[in-house]
Each structure stands twice: as C-alpha cells, then as structure tokens.
Amino acid sequence: MDFKKLDKYMDRLTDRGIPFADLAVSKDGKIVYRRLVGFSDAEQTKPLNGSELYWLFSVSKVLTCTMAMKLVEEGKIDLNAPVSDYLPAYKNIFVRNSDNTVARAQNEMKIVHLFTMTAGLDYNVKAPNILRAIERSGGDTLEVVSSFADAPLNFEPGTHYRYSLCHDVLGAVVEVASGMKFSEYVKKYLTEPLEMKNTGFKPTDEQLSRFATMYRYDNGTATATPMEPTNEHILGDKYESGGAGIFSNTADYIKFVTALANGGVAENGYRLLKPETVQMMTKNYLTDSQRTEFVSTKFFGYGWGLCGRVHLDPIVSESLSPVGEFGWDGAANSFSMIDSTNRVAMFFGKQVRGCAYGHHKIDPTVRNLVYEGLDL
User: What CATH number belongs to 4-60+196-374?
Assistant: First the structure.
C-alpha cells in the first residue's frame, strides 16, 4: 500500500476551501488509512483531532436501510408488502396527474419502493400536511410520517425515481416491524454492539460541545463561511429522521461500513447482516428509465439499490471501485463507500453545506486515490 498521492491531495483540501476533513479507510476489517486535515472551529485554533461530531444528513440513509434489511432477513419486513401493512395511513393514497388533477393511486406503494426512492414522495418538509402533524403531535415520528400520505403523490408508486422522504418512512416501518422506537432499535442492534458511542439522534450537551463548525460553501469562489449548525430534517423534538437525522463521527461510522464490507461482520465479531443480505444491497433495482431520472453528473455509471448508489459501469463512471460498490453521501458533504468484493470501506467526514464541488470532484477523486493506494 502506498498512499503518498492521497496524502498530498488530502493536505491540499483546505486550499480548495474545505475547512476540515477526516478520512478513514478499512481493508479486510482493519483501518489501513486515516488522515485528518484542517480545524474544527471557525477561528482555526483547534486542529482536527478525530473526536469531532457532525450531522450525517443523508449518510443516515445507509444506516436506516441496513436496519431495515436486518428485519427483512428476519422475515419481519417483506420487500414486496404494501407499506400500508405497517403504516395504515398509506392504504388510501392519491396521485397528482400531469394535468394537475388528483385521482386514487392505481398501484400499491410497496416497501421496496421506499428503499429505491420510487414511492412517489418528495422532500418538501414544509408541506402544510406535515406542518399540521408536527404541531398536533410535537413531531411524533409515526404521526408525522403518516401525514406524508395526506398529500397526493407525484407519480404512481414504482413508475419513476425521485429522491424524497422515502427513508424517513422506512425508519417508521422499522419502528412498527420491530416494536421498538427506531432509535432504540438502532442502539440495540447497531451502535451498542459495534461500540459506536458517538452516534445517535439526540446529542447530549457534552456531545453538542464536540460538534465541529458547520460551513456554507461558495462553489464559485471555493470559500466556506461558518453557518448555524442546523438540521432542518429533524421535524420536532420527538421526530427521528431515518433519512437525515443521525449524528456521528468518522471513528464510529467507519466501524459500521467496515462491517458491511466484510460480509456483515464487525471487527469485534458481531454479525450485523448475513452475507447474502449484503449482496442484495450491491444490486441495482431501477429500470433503465428510472436510472435516467437518477443519474446526475456525479453518478454516471451508477444505479440505485436497497442502500443508495450502486456501481454498474466502471468505464462510464471512471471509478476504480468494482461493480457492486455502494453507499451514499450527505448534504454536509460526508461520503460513505462499501466494497464487499475487495472488503474495502471508506468514510469521508466533512461539514460543508452546498458544496457541489465536493460531491462532483473531491469525493470521486479521493475514492480513486484510495484504490490507487491500495493497489488492488
């Protein structure tokens, strides 16, 4: 292994306007690379030390899908079952047609549609039906998620891809199927057995004191400005967002993705998932037309599976990762990757909102430099 080129690139990230970054890479269950650059505070007085916490935003989705897949392999969630089997509010759903008329949906919304972002939902957390449910319930997860079904869907379930609140609904399904609050299920079956002591939904005062500064990135000038560390996806004091509501840090999250990359087994021997379940997560579940709706400038050559992006075509993507590599990123520019073929995992922690440059350029460059360094 030779990570000199990766070291050099990481050390120049601050010159590219990234205030801090924390990269961890594992191979065969062991950490083989860790690099910290920049400062955790806006005044640049505290060099990054690796204990800093940050909101994962949509990197939360990988964790949520994994928890749901654990229940799938146990037979408590059926991928082809109607969502209404778990959340009755989704029994009578409506669709807004292209002519703006509303009609009862012809297709059932199924659990697999939640995994694959093909359920017809959107990401409007300020919709009147959602705001009413928050006010009425104080942000109770099941009540708020049930309110998503009050508004017409954007299309018939299963017919199109649209990035949306699907994984918030999936978190609520986990709650119903397990008989436990989503956070309690995550704690019992993931964070406690993997000793992820700095991952959760509601940070303590001590944990809040360790949150790194959040920044807003200007893609034109490649500069970052401190901003309030808000997470608009936490829709109330009692709300647990499976799509974007989890906080963590690099030291914790790398344990999680390492377990997935190693056939579902953590370094301490805890079995998170069966190998065949992990393999299900390496497959594309979108049709060709849905892939067209999914693909953007950062995901040419990819599809979408049961846990985010799935690598399909290395020639098109120019990625050095193998077919079947999967993972996801988040609004504050953190990035996760699972490669169960080579047993490689990667987590790249950052806290920069609006950083298209990071998504489109930095993350794929770092990913490829990781593989160059591993020399697989």
Answer: 3.40.710.10
